[in-house]
Write a structure and sequence with these properties.
CATH superfamily of the largest domain: Intergrase catalytic core
Shape: elongated
Strand content: 5-15%
Largest sheet: 3 strands, antiparallel
Helix content: 40-55%
Radius of gyration: 23 Å
CATH architecture of the largest domain: Orthogonal Bundle
Distance between the termini: 42 Å
Strand order of the largest sheet: 1-2-3
């Protein structure tokens, strides 16, 4: 499903009644028409939705049909430089569609390194949320897929016989197939098979349903952080798990091409950030032993690396 400007939405109508800016009603038809044009032009549904939302929010605060008013508002708005740049990119695309001259103001994006939690913190969060949230988090943790890719997962993409999951790409990335643990398969199979998609009703708008799912996660994450008295857990997002997986895989393999394939990147520059995110030189390790092939298999499936064999017992380790 895509952008539907004519869809009945009581919440949107309520928000419209609260609008004080008289220019909003004048700009709204153009914004909605622009959203339809983007959809027909082949833009991703998520891009259309975020662009239209940004333009509508801007139109409630200033005259979006007047470029100088927009620039004046953004100059004094309490927004980060990154957010201002994102908004101005949407505005520039809108003005180009309307064939209006526009000179973009300069905003300097500040590139920051993503937060990388400890694995024990991720596991504590997964254990502290609901069943559906836990399966979603475990999926991203093991496969490093994007939240949108995880949300689009279909039952036909889950191969229980081979313990694999096929990831349908988004954002022009590469399709992937990842081996997963028996734990994740068990968590997925515990979910009712009401829809073709694993996590949501295929009749619902995927962007709106993912937003609702994310809001539920934020509430559950807050309660888990308070219960565990660990504020770091509140910094963990869906994308954090993707960053964590990429970082740990690079430090495990020292193979940036492996990380590039894991993430589905087409450009290696997007993968290079993970080469210097975390220094693991002083990390502690969890040690486990295996006396049988089945025990060793379980350890490998859970991310443990083989170290050596002593007195007939195999030693495995994994970073904490």
């Amino acid at each position: 499903m895509g952008f539907e400007p004519t869809k009945h939405c009581p919440r949107a109508e309520e928000n419209s009644r609260k609008v004080q800016n008289p220019a909003f009603s004048q700009a709204l038809p153009d914004v909605l028409s622009f959203g339809l044009w983007m959809q027909k032009a082949g833009y991703r549904s998520s891009t259309v939705t975020s662009c239209v939302k940004a333009l509508k929010a801007l139109a409630r605060r200033t005259n979006v049909l007047d470029p100088e008013s927009v620039k004046s508002y953004l100059a004094s708005a309490a927004l980060s430089e990154n957010r201002k740049q994102t908004v101005i990119d949407h505005v520039a695309r809108f003005y180009k569609w309307k064939k209006m001259p526009f000179v973009q103001p300069r905003y300097r994006r500040i590139h920051t390194l993503p937060f990388i939690p400890l694995e024990v913190e991720i596991d504590q969060l997964i254990a502290g949320v609901g069943q559906g949230q836990a399966a979603f988090l475990q999926l991203i943790k093991e496969t490093a897929c994007r939240p949108g890719e995880a949300w689009a997962l279909r039952w036909i993409d889950v191969d229980g016989e081979r313990s694999c999951i096929r990831i349908v790409p988004e954002k022009g990335s590469q399709p992937r197939e990842r081996r997963v643990t028996a734990r994740l398969l068990s968590m997925l199979n515990a979910k009712p098979r009401k829809w073709d998609c694993v996590f949501h009703d295929t009749k619902a708008d995927p962007n709106e349903s993912l937003d609702d799912f994310r809001r539920t996660f934020i509430n559950q994450r807050r309660r888990a952080a308070e219960r565990l008295q660990n504020p770091r857990i509140r910094q963990i997002t869906f994308r954090t798990l993707r960053h964590w997986k990429a970082t740990t895989e690079y430090h495990r393999t020292k193979d940036i091409l492996h990380v590039m394939q894991l993430l589905g990147h087409r450009n290696i520059q997007n993968s290079l950030v993970y080469t210097h995110l975390v220094d693991f030189h002083d990390d502690n390790y969890i040690c486990r032993v295996a006396q049988t092939v089945d025990e060793a298999k379980v350890l490998v499936e859970n991310g443990f690396d083989y170290v050596s064999e002593i007195d007939g017992v195999q030693l495995f380790r994994k970073r904490k």
